[in-house]
C-alpha cells in the first residue's frame, strides 16, 4: 500500500507522534535512521506501535513509489563539519572548551540562562593555614556513594547514546539520573535515579514508575518545572534556518523549540501538592526527588509533603534559575557547575550537571565523558584545597560569603 505525504500528515497515528507529524513529514521518503536513533530508545517502536501500524511503503503525491534517499541532510552535514572542527580530546582543559551550541539554548531572551551563570560568581572566600595535602571530594547522595559531589542531571536527546554516559559514570562512581525518554543499562552495583515526566495518562506514568523500580532504579526524580515547555528561540531560529536551507516546509510549529514540539501534547500540566505527591508515594517505595523547585515557599511545601530531596532548578534557564537539593534534614542551595564547591558550602548535598555531559558525549562519546569527569575531579579538588577544605564535611556556610561590588566598597571604608 502506498501513501502520499498529505495522507500521512492527516493520518490520526501520525498526529499522535509526540514530536508532531512535522518531523515525520520532514523525513518522508528519506532514510530517517540518523534522526530517529539518537532520541528514541532502541525498543521505542516495539513499545509504542503495533505491527498493524506498519503502513507500507512511502509514495510521492503522484502515487509513484519514492526511493529511500541515502544522501546527507543539512543536519548531518552540519554535524560532520563540526566533528571535523573539534579540538583533540587532550586539548580540552575545562568544561567551556567542549560547549556545543545546540544544547546552550535557553528560553526566550535567555535572561534566566545568563543569570544562572552569573548568580553565583558573587560568592567567594578562601581560608588559609588548613592542612589539605590529603583531600577527599567523595560524598553520599541519598545514601549512595559518589566520588564527587555531582551527579548527571537527566538531559534527554543525548546524541551519541546515553549509554556512553552511563558507562563512563559507572567507572567513575558518579550517579546518573536517566530521563523518562532514555534507557540505560547500569554496571553491576551502579546506582541510577529515574527522571519522571508525569503525563496526563496517570496509568501510563504509574506503569513507567513501577517498571523503573523493578529495574532497580534507586530514586524517582519528578520534574515539576516543565509542565509547559519554554519557548527556545535559539532552537527555533536554527531549525528555521536549516529548513530554509533544505528548501522544505517541515510542518514544525515555529513558535516552539524542537523539544517543545516533542512534549507539549502529553505533559500533565495539572501537577499539585494535593494530588501528585500522594499518587507517587502510593505507587513506589523509592525516595522521591522534586526536580525544579525555585522558591523557599515551595521548598517548605516539599518538606511538608515528605519528599526525600529537592532539586532547585529552572531547567538550566530552559524553562523558566539555579538548583537546590535537600532531604528531610537539610536544605541547601545548588549552584551552576563551575560553582559546585560554593553550592556544597551553602548546604547542597550535590550539584546536578546536565549540558556538560551532553557536550562531552556529542563531541567525543564515552572518552569525552570520562575526560570531563577527570577535569571536574581536578577542578573540584583544587578548589577544595584552595578554599581550605580537606573533605566535603569541611565545606560549610562560613567558608563563603556574598561579595557585591558596592557593599565591598562600603565595607572597606568602615575598616
Ligand atoms: C538538551 C536537554 C535536554 C533535557 N532534558 C531533560 C529531561 O528530559 N528531563 C528533565 O527533567 N530535565 C531535562 N533537562 C534539564 C537538565 O536536567 C538540567 O536541569 C539543566 O540542563 C540544567 O543543568 P546544566 O546547566 O548543567 O545544563 C534537559 C536539558 C537539556 C540541555
From TrEMBL:
Single biological process term from Gene Ontology: lactate metabolic process
Cofactor section: FMN
Species of provenance: Lentinula guzmanii
PROSITE patterns, alphabetized: FMN_HYDROXY_ACID_DH_2
GO molecular function annotation: L-lactate dehydrogenase (cytochrome) activity
Keyword Thylakoid appears in the UniProt entry: no
Keyword Hydrolase (UniProt): no
Pfam families in the cross-refs: Cyt-b5, FMN_dh
Alphabetic keyword roster: Oxidoreductase
Residues covered by the FMN hydroxy acid dehydrogenase domain: 76-405
Protein name, as recorded: FMN-dependent dehydrogenase-domain-containing protein
InterPro entries, A to Z: Aldolase_TIM (IPR013785), Cyt_B5-like_heme/steroid-bd (IPR001199), Cyt_B5-like_heme/steroid_sf (IPR036400), FMN-dep_DH (IPR000262), FMN_HAD (IPR037396)
Amino acid at each position: 500500500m502506498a501513501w502520499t505525504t498529505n495522507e500521512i500528515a492527516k493520518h490520526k497515528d501520525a498526529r499522535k507522534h509526540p514530536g508532531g507529524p512535522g518531523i515525520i513529514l520532514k523525513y518522508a521518503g528519506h532514510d530517517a535512521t540518523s534522526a530517529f536513533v539518537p532520541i528514541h530508545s532502541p525498543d521505542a517502536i516495539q513499545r509504542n506501535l503495533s505491527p498493524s501500524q506498519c503502513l507500507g511503503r512511502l509514495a510521492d503525491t503522484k502515487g509513484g513509489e519514492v526511493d529511500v534517499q541515502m544522501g546527507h541532510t543539512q543536519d548531518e552535514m552540519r554535524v560532520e563539519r563540526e566533528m571535523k572542527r573539534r579540538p583533540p580530546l587532550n586539548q580540552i582543559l575545562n568544561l567551556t572548551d567542549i560547549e556545543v551550541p545546540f544544547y546552550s539554548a535557553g528560553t526566550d531572551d535567555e535572561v534566566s540562562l545568563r543569570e544562572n551563570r552569573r548568580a553565583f560568581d558573587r560568592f567567594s572566600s578562601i581560608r588559609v593555614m588548613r592542612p589539605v595535602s590529603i583531600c577527599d571530594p567523595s560524598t553520599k547522595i541519598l545514601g549512595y556513594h559518589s566520588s564527587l559531589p555531582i551527579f548527571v542531571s537527566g538531559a534527554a536527546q543525548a546524541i551519541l547514546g546515553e549509554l556512553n554516559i552511563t558507562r563512563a559514570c559507572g567507572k567513575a562512581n558518579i550517579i546518573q539520573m536517566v530521563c523518562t525518554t532514555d534507557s540505560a543499562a547500569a554496571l553491576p552495583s551502579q546506582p541510577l535515579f529515574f527522571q519522571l515526566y508525569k503525563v496526563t495518562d496517570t496509568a501510563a506514568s504509574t506503569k513507567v514508575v513501577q517498571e523503573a523500580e523493578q529495574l532497580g532504579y534507586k530514586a524517582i526524580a519528578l520534574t515539576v518545572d516543565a509542565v509547559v515547555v519554554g519557548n527556545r528561540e535559539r532552537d527555533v531560529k536554527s531549525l528555521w534556518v536549516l529548513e530554509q536551507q533544505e528548501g522544505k516546509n517541515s510542518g514544525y510549529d515555529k513558535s516552539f523549540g524542537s523539544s517543545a514540539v516533542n512534549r507539549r501534547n502529553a505533559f500533565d500540566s495539572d501537577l499539585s501538592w494535593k494530588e501528585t505527591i500522594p499518587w507517587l508515594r502510593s505507587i513506589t517505595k523509592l525516595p522521591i526527588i522534586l526536580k525544579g523547585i525555585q522558591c523557599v515557599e515551595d521548598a517548605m511545601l516539599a518538606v511538608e509533603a515528605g519528599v526525600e530531596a529537592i532539586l532547585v532548578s529552572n531547567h538550566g534557564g530552559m524553562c523558566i534559575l539555579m538548583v537546590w537539593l535537600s532531604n528531610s534534614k537539610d536544605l541547601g542551595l545548588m549552584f551552576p557547575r563551575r560553582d559546585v564547591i560554593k553550592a556544597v558550602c551553602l548546604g547542597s548535598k550535590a550539584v546536578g550537571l546536565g549540558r556538560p555531559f551532553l557536550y562531552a558525549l556529542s563531541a567525543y562519546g564515552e572518552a569525552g565523558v570520562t575526560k570531563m569527569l577527570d577535569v571536574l575531579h581536578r577542578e573540584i579538588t583544587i578548589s577544595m584545597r584552595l578554599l581550605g577544605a580537606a573533605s566535603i564535611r569541611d565545606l560549610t556556610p562560613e567558608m563563603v560569603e556574598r561579595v557585591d561590588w558596592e557593599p565591598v566598597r562600603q565595607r572597606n571604608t568602615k575598616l
